[in-house]
Each structure stands twice: as C-alpha cells, then as structure tokens.
Amino acid sequence: MLLSNSFIPVLKNNPSEAKIKSHQLMLRVGMIKQASAGIYSWLPLGFKVMKKIENIVRQEQNKIGAQEILMPTIQSSEIWKESGRYEDYGEEMLRITDRQNREMLYGPTNEEQVTEIFRSSIKSYKSLPQLLYHIQWKFRDEIRPRFGIMRGREFYMKDAYSFDISDDEALYSYNKFFLSYLRTFKKLSLTAIPMAADTGPIGGNLSHEFIILAETGESKIFTDKRIFELNSDDTNLEKKSLDNMRKKYEQYYAVTDEKFNKEKFEKIVLEKNRLITKGIEVGHIFYFGDKYSKAMGASVDLPGGKKDFVKMGSYGIGVSRLVGAIIEAKYDEKNEIMKWPLSVAPYDIAIIPMINKNDNSALDKANNINEELIKNNIDTIIDDTDENFSSKIKKMNLIGAPYQIIIGKKNDGDLLEFKETGGETQNLPLNKIIEIITKQKNSI
Amino acid sequence: MLLSNSFIPVLKNNPSEAKIKSHQLMLRVGMIKQASAGIYSWLPLGFKVMKKIENIVRQEQNKIGAQEILMPTIQSSEIWKESGRYEDYGEEMLRITDRQNREMLYGPTNEEQVTEIFRSSIKSYKSLPQLLYHIQWKFRDEIRPRFGIMRGREFYMKDAYSFDISDDEALYSYNKFFLSYLRTFKKLSLTAIPMAADTGPIGGNLSHEFIILAETGESKIFTDKRIFELNSDDTNLEKKSLDNMRKKYEQYYAVTDEKFNKEKFEKIVLEKNRLITKGIEVGHIFYFGDKYSKAMGASVDLPGGKKDFVKMGSYGIGVSRLVGAIIEAKYDEKNEIMKWPLSVAPYDIAIIPMINKNDNSALDKANNINEELIKNNIDTIIDDTDENFSSKIKKMNLIGAPYQIIIGKKNDGDLLEFKETGGETQNLPLNKIIEIITKQKNSI
C-alpha cells in the first residue's frame, strides 16, 4: 500500500484533548475520529487492527466449541422487564421509543436476549452444553465518556454465554472460557492476569476479571507477583486439566480493589511478592447459575422426566478496548515509538525510501521490494510522500508496523537497512528479511 | 460438525407467520429468530451464510481500491441538520435522546457522517480520489416491517462513498463500483441487472439499482431481456474499459416502475424482447455531485490555488437482505430443496448416515469420511441424530449444503452415494468426491 493512496490522516502534534497515550496515538495517526462524545469512527488504520483482534478472539472462541451468532443491537424492553433489570440498569441504558411507541433499548449486554433465544429453541438436556457467542456493538450511556475508545459509549465487544445442565458442568464451561481467554490475550502479546472480581449488575457468585498492567488503568490491583510467571501452555480441554489450570492460578492472591482485603493480603502474600499497581480490564467472566434462566423460564427436560432451569455463565472481551489496551502496554511515549504485535499489526513492515526531486530510484527500489514481499504474503506500507526523511521515519514509528526497511542514499549492494521498529539497524539481504518475518508470522 | 452439537433449531413445519419463501425457510431451519418487529437474531446457520456474503462483498470492494472503515451506528443530529435531511427523513429515522438530552439517531445511511470525516481529514486534490466503505448495521423504522430480513428494521449493509475532484473523475469512481457490483453478485451466483433508477432521498441525477429476478420482489421491472446475456468478464479497471461496460449495459432499456415510460418502452424494445416482471433490489448506486460536500463545506485545494467542493457518490449493498434474496432465487419450495451456492454455503457437504439402534457402523464411517474432508478443507455437517432416515434427508435438503453423501444399508465397497443436493445420486469413491468439490471451490 502506498501511503499517498491511503486514508491515514496523521497529525503533526499530539491532540490536546487526549489525556492518555492510547487516545493520543489513535487520534494522532488517524486510527479513529470522534463522531460525538464517546462515539468514534474507525479509520482504515484503526479498523485493520481491530479486525485482526476480532479474528483472534473469534478463532479462540471457536476452538473451545463455542458457536457464533449475532444478536441485534436494538432490543425490546420486554425481556429486560422479565429479568427485572429494566429499572435496575439506570441511566447507562440508552432507552429508545420507536414510532409505534414501543419501549426499546440499545443493548448494553445480552443475557436476556440470549436466554430468550435459548428457551425457545432448546428443550432437552441432550442438546447441552451450548456455548454461544457474538461480536457486536454495545452502548452504555456513560455520564463521563473518556480516554477515547477505552471508555466510550458505543463499543465493540465479544460476549459469550454458556448453558449447562448442572453446576458441575457449568463450571467446566466456565473453565473452557478461562483457558480461551488466557490463549487469546497471549496471541495478542498481552500478559493478562485473571483476578477474582465482583459480579456487579450481571450477578452470580463466581467471577474473574482479566487485567493487563498499565499505569493508566482504572482498576487498582493487589496481587502476588508470582502469578505473572504462570501460563496455560500445558492445559487442554479435558475437565481435569482445566481444573488444574484454575487451581494453579487461584493459588496466588490476585484481586481488584472491590475485593481487596488488606489483612488477608498481608497474611497470605509475603512482602517481597506483593504487587500493588493499576491495570486495564480486558475481559470479564461470570458464573450466575439460574439467575436469568429462572426469571425467564429457560428450562430443559432432565433424564428422569423432570425439568430444571439451565445453569448459565457469561464471558466478555472488549474488542475495541483492546486496541487501546495494546497501545497502553506497548507504546513508548517518550521516544514516540509504537511497535504493534505482529499478530494485530496494521502492516507487517514499513518501507521508507528517501525521495529527492528528480530522483525516484529509492521509490523504484521500494516498489520492487514490495512486489517480492507481496509474493510472500507480507503486508507493506510504503511512504512514497516527498516529506523530509526524518519526519517520514517519525511518522512510521507512530504508525507502528513492527519492521522497517529504510532506503537512504547509501547503496550497499544487495544489503538493506532493516530493523525491528525502535530497534537496531541490521544490513540484510531481502530473502533473509522475508525469512525472519515469515518465521515470526508462522509462530503466532 | 455434528448436528447434535450444533445450535440449529429446525421446525417440523413452515411457520405460519411467514409469507414468502425466504422468510419461511430461514425460520424453519433456524437461520434467524425474531427479536421484535423487524429485528432478528442470526443463529449459527444464518450467521455463517451472512458472513460469507460479507466477505465476498469486502473482497470485491478491496479489489477496486476502496478502503474499509467503520462508522458508529449512533450519530449526532448535528450533521443531519447541516445537510438539511434531519427533518426530511421523517419517521423512518429512529430518533434518540441520550441522558444529556442530546438529539441522536440510529444511522439509516452515512452520507453526512462520511462527509464529516472527509472534510476534517483531506485538504488537497493530491489525496483524491478516495473510496471509503464500511459494513455496518443500519436502522430504518419501517411502519410495516415484513418478509423477515428482506424488509427488516435493523439491517446489515455495505455502504461506500467516493470523493473526486471533478465530475469526470467521479464517474470513473462510479463505474468502478458498477463493475465491482457485477462481480460481487456473480460470485454469489446471482444474475443482478443494473437498472436506471430514481435517486430518492439520497439525491443526485444518476443512479442504478441492481435487481435480481424474483416473483416475490417488491420492484416492478421493465426491460429488454437481452440484457441478461451481458457480462463484465472482459472489463478491467481502466477508464475506457469501464466506459464501454456502462455503454454495453445502457444500450438496453431496463428500468424500475418509478422510471417506467410505456411509450418509450414500446418504441425502443421489440415486442419479442420485452420483459415485465418483478425483482429484488440488492444494490443501489448514486452519483450526486456536491450535494453533501457543498452543504457541509467539504472542499479541497485545487492545483491552481482555488478551492472546490468534492464530487461524491454513494454505493450500497444489502448484506443481510442478500441472504434472503439468494433463497428467493434458489429455493425449490415445491420440493423443499435448498442448494446454497458453494461460495456462501453454511457447509460444503452434508453426510447423512442411517443410524440404527446398536449399530453405529454408518456413523463411524461418516466420521472417517469427515476426517478426510477436513484434511482437504471441506466443511461438513454430519446428521448424527437417531431420527428416521427420510426425515434426516428432508432436513438436510432444507439446510442446503450443496453436496450430500448418504450412508445407507447398502455397502458398495469403496463407492459412496454422492449427489448434488436435489440432483441424481452417483456412486463415487471419496477421492473423486473431494476432487469434484475442490475443483468447484477453486473456481469461485
């Protein structure tokens, strides 16, 4: 892609209205544009990143056997009255009256709607478990939307719902999502830690938030820092393996401030292991048993002939928020260098040719290199503008393709100036560069 | 995929509330579920088809150099007041007041929003042309929503917008979209004919609707039937080639009833070539010059130093509607046989084993075949339920994978009972079946 053809409106300076670095960077390189308070358009650069995140989330949901559906954004108030949450939800719910004077709303979450789908479709325990998810826009009418897409009003979220015959089976489903979340965040190059959390308006008695560390985070966290050394690489989808994974993570104290108990923290966690810091919530899972199924009459026939309400959980990942969260975790604000994880990078590599008047040789070279890269499925952006060289490099450091090839005056035969964005320059031939990137892509 | 694990709630009979065959079939095989009047949830089967359609639409937009963005569903009334359409749009616009008493609305279309993005980002003719598109949910508060997702209130649409420096360049962009629409519908196995159309509330003086023939269509069409023999296979993205394509299509009379002129029709079209029938609108393109750019002040610097308002067009494809339109075009209602085009089929092939009590041999065989098919990237659904054989076949004929393997009592060595859904049975070895399907997939 040539930069001159692309719709990437870059600003010279940081926008003054943005208070945190993800919001600054996203406005600065034209990833998003505000439409109104807390509501954003996604321009091509931001859209590409969000779509890649969405696809990773989707793949990991599919791997645990969850099936994708798509519920509408506009819901009827009826089902919310059945569950009893219509009044509870307060002013954060965007309430709408249609032309027939029906009470509608823009869904902030979908427990009611999915329960309604389930109860009219599934009648027997034989059809359980069911894991359903969708990736859809939600709306919460925040009184003070802020931090760009990190706390917007219209946001993109994956929410999944599990339906099981018993508590035991339901916890099995819960643990599957627990694993899929660890895998999802790992693919995004994020270290997300599951923390015991309050259930809030969703309800239930078991809940984990997945938190990544960031100074700008809104969640205060208290943890045994050894939890950061854990991983789920050996876990599979068997019940026992998943149980062990949960136990492994739960051996360490790790809570957000809502659940914090100073006495307990200091008793359980040795001083040298204590970590008190801030983080960003990127996922949240809940087990709430029959809270919705009972209120809404979602029951199935049991083996013996009786009926029982299904046991449900719900599982959310903030897809649009993750774009900002990755920036918060990865952006070197001081040096103005963003290096996207290759799995979600808007481009794999940037080619930056020095273009002088009446001399297009560097641009021609860039185009030739690009052709080779395309053949190898490597997605490129070429800065073909005639801006001065240093401002081109500065701009590409912000756009954040994880690799760069710089084509300056020096002509070093077949060797190219290649670097990881923000790293040291190496002189390498093109085939070696292709090898490095391809290897890295295949390891995702 | 095993049918017993999947969320495909099939009804025994046609639902009485559905009046046209696409609505009937979609409810019957659990592709969609109504949430409220004119608002639907997409269940896994319907979701898969819609997603495949969306991806074909996306690919063809990308091929003409359009860049994907994503604008929000909720818009501010401000920009609609600027364009003058806020009052004009009437009750079909879903108007919303947020908690701060701001006038918002659920976007029925995006001319204003994209013009606002353009004017704040692009300042020079050097950055033109720009072709931007997004695929997003829209809402039109129809007084009488009907025919399921064919005329729903919340619907999924691809809308694109072009920005050019002159009428001439703008018509070049118009023709690019014209071509991409012909290609898109062809990939969906639809014969869509471009017809001169009124511009309605979008405005402008040049417009084409893309219409597929269907008795249940809401558009009455009058055409020279020789237009159905045309194709765009030899057209490329050069200006001249696109001009010739437009001329080729426009040599034949083809209009919807809004533009119909009886005298002209009978004068231009020989009686033997006249076709008066009904169709479904699946795409609509508009050229409206500076209607929005002038009202909203979207201008660019010209080469000589002056400024001018950009010339714009807009281009819509009804992604959710296409699911229904394909059913209207392809479903054999009398014999209850649906055969999805392979490019958008929810599964490539259905395996239907006869399962008797205490005899799982047919199911084992089905699973073995499935493993081979998976290795060859062929997506399968196996009916592993213990329903009787004829109702299994009936159900799979409705679900509509384009190929079937039937595993009955007969054991014919390595030969399998294979057919195109609704076609004649052939006895073929598995490797031959794989070859047939793979060849067909590669030709899409």
Could you walk me through the main structural features you see in this protein, from its secondary elements to its overall organization?
Two copies of one chain form a homodimer. Chain A folds into two domains: 21-330, Bira Bifunctional Protein, Domain 2 (BirA Bifunctional Protein, domain 2, 2-Layer Sandwich); 347-442, Rossmann fold, CATH 3.40.50. Helices cover 33% and strands 27% of the residues of chain A. The first copy, chain A, has 13 helices and 21 strands. Chain A has helices spanning 21-28, 44-63, 77-83, 85-88, 111-119, 167-187, 239-250, 262-268, 291-296, 319-330, 361-375, 389-399, 430-442, and strands spanning 32-36, 39-42, 67-68, 74-76, 94-97, 103-106, 130-139, 154-164, 192-196, 206-213, 219-224, 254-256, 274-289, 299-301, 307-309, 311-318, 349-353, 380-382, 403-407, 415-420, 426-429. In chain A, strands 3, 7, 8, 9, 10, 11, 12, 13 and 16 form a nine-stranded mixed β-sheet that branches. A five-stranded mixed β-sheet of chain A has the order 18-17-19-20-21, with helices on both faces. In chain A, helix 2 (44-63) crosses helix 10 (319-330) and helix 6 (167-187) packs across helix 7 (239-250). The longest helix of chain A has 21 residues, at 167-187. The first copy, chain A, starts with 20 loop residues before the first helix and ends with a helix. At the A-B interface, strand 1, strand 2, helix 2, strand 3 and strand 4 of A face strand 1, strand 2, helix 2, strand 3 and strand 4 of B.
